[in-house]
């Protein structure tokens, strides 16, 4: 476990006690998503109002609000399962992992890492776990969640534990500096986003000002999940491909490890860490009912 400057990942543990626990999404009755009115920015919504967002999914207002974005303002909105009344046994929208399966994967997770936060983040990268056949989709979801589990101790840690590291993640040579403060860019979220330049890059890609507001990654579940998906879908780290491409193009789970922490774990550097990731991936594919595929190691 160590931190690395070249990627958005810092394999560091975190304190979870100070992290707010978000309320899980309420159960929903069956209805067609298309039956709800389109969300309109700036329009007032009362608690209980249901809208259809631009990603085609439905969201229910948990608190009244003046038209906040359902995908960004997750305290005000929760995903609403308008395709099934299964109470968690059926995946939300096009996601191949149901809430019940998610809970089985992470029985001891921090309450911050909600299933609703994850599904709300999926619209940022619609190709994730939604490319290729059903087996490929499930293998990619399992691969992402297995690596996330390894990085966060089973979705327990939200922020980096070693506070002594915090001031080291500011690169003043960047033209934008560190406007949130010298010690503001420590590891946060499911793939422990760190460094000012990574917060800037992720924020620019997601349309969220994370350079000035890095704390969003530890206070907004959907934003945290989006940063993990940003890395997974767009960054190759020490590898030669993004983890997303590794899974959808048949390179195998081992290449996702290389893209996340290959310089410290692959090619015999730390076989125990690699084995831990593989074991978790195999367990998650079993939960999803698919084979793990070939090329598991790096």
Which key features would you list for this structure?
disordered N terminus, 3 strands, Lysozyme, globular, Seminal Fluid Protein  PDC-109 (Domain B), 298 residues, mainly alpha, three-stranded antiparallel β-sheet, single chain, 2 domains
How is the topology of this model organized?
Layout: E1 50-52, E2 58-61, E3 77-80, H1 99-105, H2 115-121, H3 134-152, H4 196-206, H5 216-219, H6 221-234, H7 243-248, H8 253-265, H9 271-288
Antiparallel strand pairs: 1-2, 2-3
Q: What does the main sheet amount to?
A: 3 strands, antiparallel
Quaternary structure state of the chains depicted: single chain
Low-confidence stretches: 1-31, 83-87
What spatial form do the alpha-carbon principal axes imply? Answer: globular
Helix share bin: 25-40%
Describe this entry's structure for a reader.
This protein has a three-stranded antiparallel beta sheet with strand order 1-2-3. The longest helix is centred in the middle third of the chain and has 19 residues, at 134-152. With 298 residues, the chain is mainly alpha-helical. It has two domains: 1-27 and 88-292, Lysozyme (Orthogonal Bundle); 29-86, Carbohydrate-binding module superfamily 5/12 (Seminal Fluid Protein  PDC-109 (Domain B)). It has helices at 99-105, 115-121, 134-152, 196-206, 216-219, 221-234, 243-248, 253-265, 271-288, and strands spanning 50-52, 58-61, 77-80. Helix 2 (115-121) crosses helix 6, helix 3 packs across helix 9 (271-288) and helix 4 crosses helix 6. A hairpin with a 5-residue loop joins strand 1 (50-52) and strand 2. Helices cover 33% and strands 4% of the residues. The two termini are 17 Å apart. Residues 97-298 form the Glycoside hydrolase family 19 catalytic domain. It comes from Streptomyces nodosus. This is Chitinase.
